[in-house]
């Protein structure tokens, strides 16, 4: 059943109230845990019996577990709000009620989408799921309607380019995607085989807990060239060190003596496994000119 604007607004308000309640709960739990931690610190400086020390350690661990669980619940509510808004956006597009977005606003939306991508923080022993950071999708995975993907499309003179696109549908009988160019000025539709579509990460990997889920330094990748909607060949120069940092990548550029331009920041969401094209001689620096004309 289609989600009406009224129902969507009501569902979002309910979740915002839940988030507010959870934030207050997190604050209360943090104050309580600080009391126990201070008590543990004082105990370590005294000659407290070992058994009592163990009890304090256990209380601190329980406090941390409760706080973590509450934070995860709040993040889940935020994720639900994202899904509700995305569903309404897809419905509006299908109904033809879509506002034209200026290029500057589009680039801002692309950036915000990467910054607000859910962060996966694994629990001890937990495996990082597919489509988190550099972990690819499983071979049988089908991207959902509305998801962003990298799509290999033909441009002028029949050369192929990887562009940022949105899934309109998946044609199961043909095993093909119907995608639309994310660029408002283009809005080209493409029906592409599955091998010409790469799902983008659905979650960011946390460098502090899951660094193995990031591309290693010097890995050849495809990355979204800043302020464009096209992916180009690049090399990982520096990994993000915190959850809010981007990769630094070196885009291929023949105008530089070493074949690569100066480092540029690219968010985890837009750094994916490298796949060659029919015309792979174009570089990030040279390509950025051709991108600006089509983006």
Written description of the protein model:
The protein is an alpha+beta fold. 37% of the residues lie in helices and 21% in strands. The chain has helices spanning 5-44, 50-94, 103-115, 284-294; strands at residues 119-120, 148-154, 160-171, 176-181, 189-193, 197-199, 204-205, 220-224, 230-238, 247-251, 264-266, 271-273. The strands form 2 sheets. Strands 2, 3, 4, 5, 6, 8, 9, 10, 11 and 12 form a 10-stranded antiparallel beta sheet that branches. It has a two-stranded parallel ribbon with strand order 1-7. A hairpin with a 5-residue loop joins strand 8 (220-224) and strand 9. The longest helix is centred in the N-terminal third of the chain and has 45 residues, at 50-94. The radius of gyration is 23 Å and the shape is globular. The protein starts with a helix and ends with a helix. Residues 280-295 have low confidence and may be disordered.
């Amino acid at each position: 059943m289609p989600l009406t604007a009224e129902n969507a607004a009501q569902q979002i308000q309910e979740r915002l109230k839940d988030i507010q309640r959870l934030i207050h709960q997190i604050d209360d739990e943090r104050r309580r845990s600080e009391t126990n931690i201070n008590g543990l610190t004082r105990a370590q400086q005294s000659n407290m019996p070992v058994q009592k020390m163990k009890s304090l350690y256990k209380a601190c661990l329980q406090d941390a577990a409760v706080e973590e669980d509450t934070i995860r619940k709040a993040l889940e509510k935020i994720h639900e709000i994202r899904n509700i808004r995305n569903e309404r956006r897809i419905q509006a597009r299908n109904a033809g009620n879509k506002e034209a977005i200026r290029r500057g606003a589009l680039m801002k939306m692309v950036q915000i989408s990467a910054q607000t991508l859910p962060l996966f923080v694994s629990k001890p022993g937990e495996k990082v799921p597919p489509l988190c950071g550099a972990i690819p999708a499983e071979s049988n995975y089908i991207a959902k309607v509305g998801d962003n993907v990298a799509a290999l499309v033909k441009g002028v003179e029949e050369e192929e380019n990887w562009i940022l696109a949105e899934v309109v549908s998946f044609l199961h009988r043909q095993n093909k995607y119907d995608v639309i160019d994310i660029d408002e000025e283009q809005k080209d539709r493409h029906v592409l085989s599955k091998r010409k579509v790469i799902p983008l990460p659905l979650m960011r990997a946390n460098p502090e807990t899951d660094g193995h889920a990031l591309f290693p330094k010097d890995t050849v990748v495809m990355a979204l060239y800043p302020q464009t909607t096209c992916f180009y060949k690049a090399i990982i120069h520096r990994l993000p060190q915190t959850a809010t940092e981007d990769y630094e990548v070196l885009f291929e550029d023949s105008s530089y003596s070493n074949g690569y331009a100066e480092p540029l920041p690219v968010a985890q969401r837009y750094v994916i496994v490298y796949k060659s094209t029919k015309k792979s001689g174009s570089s990030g620096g040279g390509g950025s000119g051709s991108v600006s004309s089509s983006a």
